[in-house]
Each structure stands twice: as C-alpha cells, then as structure tokens.
Amino acid sequence: MEHQLLDVAIIGGGPAGLNAALVLGRARKNVTVIDEGRPRNAVTRETHGFLTRDGTSPSEFRRIAKEESSAYPSVSFVEDTAVSIAGTDGHFQITTAQGKAFASKKLLFAVGMKDRTLDIPGLAEVYGKSAFICPYCDGWELRDKPLVIISKGADVMHFAPLISGWTSRFTICTNGPDELTDEQREELRRHRVPVFEAPIRSIDSDDGIVRQVVLEDGTTIPCTGIFFKPELVTGSDLPRAVGCHVSEAGTVAVDDFGKTNVPGVYSAGDVASRLHQAITAASMGAFAAAAINNELNMDAWKRNE
Ligand SMILES: Cc1cc2nc3c(=O)[nH]c(=O)nc-3n(C[C@H](O)[C@H](O)[C@H](O)COP(=O)(O)OP(=O)(O)OC[C@H]3O[C@@H](n4cnc5c(N)ncnc54)[C@H](O)[C@@H]3O)c2cc1C
C-alpha cells in the first residue's frame, strides 16, 4: 500500500542523505530516508577530518545524525533497500526489497559509492584497520610510519608526492608490471622511493595491523600501514535506471545544487562527486536539500497554494 505523497524521498542515509534530511526537516518538508545501512566507511573504526566529529566511529556519527534529524516531526526513516522507481517529477513511486511502497514529489539519490578492494590474500583482514584508501582520512594515524603503497602507472606519481607529506618511509608495490615511464622511474629513484614490481603473495598482519607485505619472489617488506586505490562502483543502479546521466566512473552528473538531468531528481555525496569525504558529502546533501526545498516552494507558490 502506498503511503502519503511525501515531499522528498531520500535514497541513502549516509552523511549526504542525513544532512539533506536535517535541512528539509527544518524547512517543514515531509521526508523519508530509505537506507539499507551499508555505508562506505563501515569497515573503519573512526571518521576523521569532520569538524566537531573528528575520531567518531561511523556508526556513532550516523546515530547522532539520525537523532538530530528525528527531532523534526516531518522526517522519518525506513531501514530497507529501494529497488525500483517509476513516475515523474511531482509523483515518483518507490518500492523496496521488503515490498513497501512510497510516493514522493522529489527524489534525492544519496546512495554513495562502493569499493571493490584488490584481490590480495590478507588485505581484507587489514582493510579499515591499517590499510586505507585516503591519506586525508587516515594519514595522520600513520604519520612517520613505514608504509607500503599499492599502486601502479600514473596513480603512483599522484600517490607518492601525496604520501610524502605524512611519511618519508614508504615503498611502492606495483603488484605486477609498474606501467611507469622511464622519466617517472627516474623521478622515484631521485626521491629514493623503492619500487617493487613482483606480484604480492600475501599481506601478513596481527589483529588487523599489517606486519609485512610478502612478494611472489620471496621479498618481504616490513610495514605498519598500507594505502591503496580500490575500484569504485556506484552505490546503486537506480539513478541510471531513472535516466540520470552517469559517467563511466559511476558518478551521477549534477549541477552545483545537486540537480540531475531528470526533472525533480537530485543527487548528493560520493555518488555525485569526485571528492569523497564525509564533510563534502554532508555539504552536498545540504545544498541539494536547499535546492529541492526552493523548487517545492516555488511549485506551490505558482499554484497559489
Ligand atoms: C576505508 C574508508 C575510510 C574512510 N574514512 C573517512 C574519514 O576518516 N573521513 C571522511 O571524511 N571520509 C572518510 N571516508 C569517506 C566517507 O566514508 C564517504 O565520503 C562518505 O561516507 C560518503 O557519504 P555518502 O552519504 O555519500 O555515502 P555513504 O556514507 O556510503 O552512504 C550511502 C548509503 O546509501 C545506502 N544505499 C545505497 N543504495 C541504496 C538503496 N538502493 N536503497 C537504500 N539505501 C541505499 C547505503 O547502504 C549507505 O548506507 C572513508 C571511506 C572509506 C572507504
């Protein structure tokens, strides 16, 4: 059975969706956040770099955010997966995996991105504990420590100078042919950065803390942390299914206010940006909420409601 016609259905309850819910709740809009609860940073113990919440666990962050949004009576939450969306601007119909149905005037996709980690034995055990993807998120905790960067090709030349801001003790493992140019190899040599091309056999660890990286040729590289670049995929196929332009990298195309090419459909957070930080996602959620609210108010104003 379909519920009341909501002003906004928010798909995804991470920092982007939750901040949007807060802003829309304060703007007196009827909002439901449908969230299946699989946030991108669930593997980590702490969220860093978010003013007033530096070091808070991802689950505690979401608990506080939900508590704050819930203070506004027009905001509600549903733990479920949105599986299909029909309709157009003014009346979208959303159905969920548990068979619930919702209808809303506007839609906000805040579905995040998902990381496909590398297929290296031992990586899953350390991911989120001592192996990370973003030095802005976790570089401080690994400062001055011996690290291994798993990366190849042009990405190495981005990673190496970046990581050098946190530690000078790092080694590059390309896990196969390095795909570097002679100039790039020379640049790394000048900076005394060791580069190993042999495939990685395993990552050895104790209680999630890396001890060493072992290569197929028998080389062992002692280290206490790892940075690597995962393959990113979009958090949900629904934006594409409703006709949103989605890049090859899985990012939904939006304007500065989160508006997609589909009337009445907005997107915010990691899935609509190349800047993947909780505070950026929250900020995008707030901007999209303001734009949606403006559109709803203007629609009503024009109808002289
Ligand atoms: C290992 C790791 C560590 C990180 N550390 C930090 C850090 O320290 N500081 C920092 O600022 N950032 C950090 N990040 C990045 C941060 O997690 C993201 O930038 C942030 O979570 C993006 O928020 P979001 O709201 O866009 O998406 P998410 O937080 O991923 O939330 C999206 C939500 O939408 C839900 N969803 C998706 N599809 C559907 C659907 N069809 N129906 C219902 N729900 C759906 C998902 O289950 C999820 O709950 C880290 C990321 C990783 C991977």
From TrEMBL:
Query: Could you tell me the keywords of this UniProt record?
Result: Flavoprotein, Oxidoreductase
Query: InterPro entries from the xrefs?
Result: FAD/NAD-bd_sf, FAD/NAD-binding_dom, Ferredoxin-NADP_redctase_2
Q: Report a single Gene Ontology molecular function.
A: oxidoreductase activity
FAD/NAD(P)-binding domain: from which residue to which, for each copy?
7-285
In terms of Pfam families, this protein maps to: Pyr_redox_2
* Obligatory cofactor(s): FAD
The record's Gene3D superfamilies line, in alphabetical order, gives: FAD/NAD(P)-binding domain
Quaternary structure, per UniProt, is:
Homodimer.
* Protein name as annotated: Thioredoxin reductase
User: What does the organism's lineage look like at the top?
Assistant: Bacteria, Bacillati, Bacillota, Bacilli, Bacillales
